[in-house]
Amino acid sequence: MNQLTKVLYQEQFRWFLWFLLFVLLFQGALLALAFYFEGTIQPFILLSFGPSRIFLLVLGIISAYAFLGYYYQLGQTRKRYYKSTIVSSILLAVTMAFIVKLLSLIEAFVVGNQSVISDQTEGTTIANDSQSITITIDIFSEGLQFLDSSLLFMLFFVLQLLFYYAVGWFISVGFYRYGWVIGLVFIVFALGFLGLNQSMWSSSLVDDLPAILQFIGTGALVTIVFSFVYLVVKRTPIKLK
């Protein structure tokens, strides 16, 4: 691992720890409410999946502005920045998936056999008898068919995190190089990529296609987006401060 990859990974991992703290606090609050009002909540791994994708999307969006110009001034090339960003994002996605899975296992161990942890697809529902408080959260839909296989679900999790990072990075380099007008066009293409990913994991395709094709499709989509990013980055004028 080169020094730039290490620095990018460490910096973004620190941001992830702050994100993780807020998600843990949110899940802890839901857990307390569920115990008090006899409700049910999603396992931590399901609750954190949606926010984790958005977090990686945001990290990708700020990547070019936060790192490209700064490290170019320190002697790093565009190519080195590109390769290091990809490697660090892969490492970050794997680390995030592993930590979230570990915390979900700890949650299950601590809570034990209490019915407060819902079945895998039920979401979070908290309501008391008088209906003075009602909270319903169900922000996870894709990949539920892999929950019985930790390996497949972790692979799915990592691929989704990488994809969202790639899309955010695609938006970032578009705005960085071309400005906000053409940058808006990059957002339109990014929405198209997101739509393709969503369609690949829709319930209709999940029933009709073998899982291996969906994994290959997502992997190909990640590769395509990263390739578009490279085409932009390799000729991007660096904005020096």
Distance between the termini: 28 Å
Q: DSSP strand (E) fraction?
A: under 5%
Net shape: globular
Q: Percent of residues in helical segments?
A: over 70%
C-alpha-based Rg, rounded: 20 Å
The biggest beta sheet reads: 2 strands, antiparallel
Overall structural class, as computed from helix and strand content, comes to mainly alpha
Blueprint (SSEs and pairs):
Elements: H1 3-37, H2 44-73, H3 78-111, E1 124-127, E2 134-137, H4 150-178, H5 180-200, H6 203-208, H7 211-233
Antiparallel strand pairs: 1-2
Task: List the keywords.
transmembrane; single chain; 7 helices; transmembrane helix; globular; mainly alpha; 241 residues
Protein model, in words:
The chain crosses the membrane at residues 15-37, 52-72, 84-106, 151-171, 178-196, 211-233. The chain has 241 residues and is mainly alpha-helical. It is built from seven helices and two strands; from the N terminus they run αααββαααα. The chain has a two-stranded antiparallel sheet. Strand 1 (124-127) and strand 2 (134-137) form a beta hairpin. Helix 1 (3-37) runs parallel beside helix 3, helix 2 runs parallel beside helix 4 and helix 3 packs antiparallel against helix 7 (211-233). It is globular and about 55 Å long. The two termini are 28 Å apart. 32% of the residues are buried. The model has no long low-confidence stretch (mean pLDDT 85).
